[in-house]
Amino acid sequence: MAKIYLSSPHMSGNEMKYIHEAFDTNWIAPLGNNVTMFEKEMCQFIGRTSAVALSSGTAAIHMGLKILGVKEDDIVFCSSFTFSGSCNPVLYLGARPVFIDSDNETWNMDPEALKKAYKKYPFPKALITVNLYGAPANYKEILKIAKEHNTPVLEDSAESLGSKYLNKQTGNFGDISIFSFNGNKIITTSGGGMLMCDNEEIKQKVLFWATQSREPFPWYEHKEVGYNYRLSNICAGIGRGQLEVIEERVKQKKNINKLYKKFFKDNKYITFMPESKDSDPNNWLTVIKLNDKCKVNFMDIINELQKNDVESRPAWKPMHLQPIFRNCEFFTSAKNGSISETIFNKSVCLPSDTKMTEGQVECVSNVVNKVILSEKGI
Ligand SMILES: Cc1ncc(COP(=O)(O)O)c(C=O)c1O
User: Where does ligand 1 bind, in terms of residues with CB under 6 Å?
Assistant: First the structure.
């Protein structure tokens, strides 16, 4: 069996057309027609008016927090159960992340834990939600609470391009939203990101910061710190070719999820990441959770898959358990420990590569079933 990847790049075939256009016109630069068009096409797909193509999702979060006015010593509420790129930019700005636990219904930010955090910190400067593994957060509740406290929301949709919540594309629920086009995402530009909003003034300011804060002078004049965060015209060309097949990729990811559910239907030791009735996730990664009766550890499964040349990985280790964030506060509604820690200790992200065949999904499932149902396990 050829190596099976977790979620690897999958070209549509049209990327080269846009790359050639850039070469033919000598626009090998962090600006050009592909950048402009990729932003326009993302606006059309998501349904927002303004977009800035950037070098990564992390850069987009950095610029998003900065435009929301986050400064030194400000409090920013962050989801704990996420990738570090979600909250590192809080530290870039000298601000303080305060971590919020997940709930069992979405595995995303728990509104009850959020309310607890507001009791201690009624005026955070911003709140970052995450749509984990493509599954939207509980925006009905979270946005209501944030509004009561007048907190602007940054929606980290890095993993959720093509997911919907209440029939609307994710990326519409934050005052600012961001996407990542890293190599492992549902579509990729090799590395890249996008900041989206509905405010042309915000777009122009982010564009200004992301291109070294050059003042409109004939010479290079700078009054503010700038960043070199713009997406290359070549990468944007890849993004345009990729965006053409986003609907197809969502269908493929959903089908992989459906197949795993079929192949695990008799395995009573496995549950799947929950899907709320309000959401229609892109199933970027299919994640399984082992129940308390299961005697094998998540690493037993990952190691056995690796022996079979199959890439899988643990769920994100929550940020409140990370050494770098050890001094940050954490709020949970769990009686003992935390919900995100329990999920982390019991879960495996299964390969969800859109190039996988049904036979490959079956092979992966057979390995997992065998480990769990082996004598060692049961
Ligand atoms: C939830 C989440 N936030 C932020 C990022 C950062 O994006 P990037 O890798 O493009 O910087 C990622 C992924 O890479 C992510 O999964």
Answer: 56-58, 82-83, 85-86, 130, 156, 158-159, 180, 182, 193
Q: Whole-angstrom Cα distance, residue 228 to residue 214?
A: 11
Nearest-angstrom CA–CA distance, 355 and 352: 9
- DSSP, collapsed to helix, strand or coil, labels residue 77 as strand
CATH architecture of the domain formed by 15-243: 3-Layer(aba) Sandwich (3.40)
Q: Residue 264 carries which DSSP code?
A: T
Atom of ligand 1 nearest to the CA of 192: 10
Residues 56-86: pLDDT tens digits? 999 999 999 999 999 999 999 999 999 999 9
- Domains of the chain, residue spans: 15-243, 246-373
Scored b (16 or more CB within 10 A) or e, 48-80 reads bebbbbbbbbbbbbbbbbbbbebeeebbbbbbb
- The amino acid at residue 90 is V
Superfamily of domain 246-373: Aspartate Aminotransferase, domain 1 (3.90.1150.10)
Write out the two tokens for 244.
């053409």
Edge-to-edge strands, sheet with 270-272: 270-272, 286-290, 347-350, 313-314
Pocket test for ligand 1, best of 182, 186, 285, 352 (most atoms within 8 A of CB): 182
Quote the pTM value: 0.98
Return the structure tokens found at 340.
Answer: 């995100």
